[in-house]
Amino acid sequence: MPDHLRNRAPKDIERKSSEKKTQHVRFTLYDSTAPLIRSPVSTTRAEDQTDDVIAVTPAQLPFDLPHSASLSRDDLIVSDANRLAVAAIDSWPAWQHPVLLVVGPPGSGKSHLASAFAERAGAQFFSADNALASAWGHERPFVMVIDDLDRTTALDTSIFELVNAARLGGGFVLATSRTAPSNMGLALPDLVSRLRAATLVEIGAPDDALLSGVLAKLFADRQIAVESRWLAFLARRMERSLEAAERLVAAIDHEALASKEKVSRPLLQRVLDRLGVARAQEDTSFASEGEGSNMRPGQSGGRN
Fold first, then answer.
1. Quick check: 276 and 243 in contact, CB under 8 A?
2. Which neighbouring-strand residues pair with 100?
3. What domains can you pick out in the chain, each with its CATH number?
4. Ramachandran region of residue 34, left (φ > 0), alpha (ψ -120 to 50) or beta?
């Protein structure tokens, strides 16, 4: 044994060892797989506990759990704004023309229609790299979806080959776009001609009925029951797009979790103000600010 250790008293060694005792910290963990963060599970990293405790509560740190809206046909909300487009995809394969073009403004639900059709018809989504080979690689007739045709980076010739193959009886093509074929800036005149000959169905910007229905579904997906009057309150004030509805519901859910409040008019208005939505003219039918919707099933007064 080295001299510097041989000459040290055992009690000195024990004292130095005790000074190196690891400091243990207790954390409060929450189950991230549950729809609600309700039941804390306490654990320790060692047998000995100290007074140093880190407490994490939902009010201090609300967790934004991953959430994705369903885009199936059963989840489509139908109103006057999209009734004709929904009827058109539902009528497949009895189309008058093998190419259907759905045209509407941003946020009107064109991509949801395309996804619902693809699920129902077993369609493939357009591949800019190998569109025609991908279509013909399956049993005929093929069924293809071109979402956002006016913004695709694919060559006009690739799109033309696919559309022309469908016109000649090879299959079906559903395309969505924000503009009509003549305004897409296409360089190939034959492609413009083929698209003009297709069946064109317009879809309008979401109306109050569609927005209210979409909001109700998005809240239900998050297990939040909301009275119809609050859905109308939001629909009259929000941006007219389905993407805006998703952002709004996520923001309301986050705010209610963080503040532990009921979903009430003050909370809704606070979120709208934060998102930069201008206040609409006061409506006497929403005068009772103290009344709010129910929370997720099993809650009252706030989220625990």
1. no
2. 174, 199
3. 22-56 (no CATH), 82-202 (3.40.50.300), 208-286 (1.10.8.60)
4. beta
The secondary structure of residue 46, as a DSSP letter, is S
Sheet holding 26-29, edge to edge: 41-43, 26-29, 53-54
Bridge partners, residue 264, by sequence: 292
Mark 277-303 as b/e (b = at least 16 C-beta within 10 Å): beeeeeeeebeeeeebbebbeebeeeb
Q: pLDDT, tens digit, for every residue of 142-186?
A: 999 999 999 988 889 999 999 999 999 999 999 999 999 999 999
What value does the mean pLDDT of the chain take? 76
SS3 202: strand
C-alpha 102/C-alpha 173 separation (Å) is: 11
Residue 73 near residue 46 (C-beta atoms within 8 A): no
Total Cβ atoms within 10 A of residue 206 = 28
How is residue 194 written in tokens? 């083929």
* Cα gap 150→135, rounded to integer Å: 20
Angle among Cα 277, 282, 284 to the nearest 5 degrees reads 140
Per residue in 110-132, pLDDT tens? 999 999 999 999 999 987 665 55
For 224-228, which contacts have Cβ atoms below 8 Å and span 24 or more sequence positions? 224/253, 224/256, 224/263, 224/293, 224/295, 224/296, 225/293, 225/294, 225/295, 225/296, 225/297, 226/263, 226/293, 226/294, 227/293
pLDDT at 120 (0 to 100):
92
**Structure tokens that stand for 21 in this block:** 């005792």
For the chain, what is the total number of helices (H) and then of strands (E)?
A: 11, 8
Q: Quickly count: other Cβ atoms within 10 Å of residue 19's Cβ.
A: 7
Of the candidate ranges 12-16, 211-215, 272-276, the one whose mean pLDDT is the lowest: 12-16
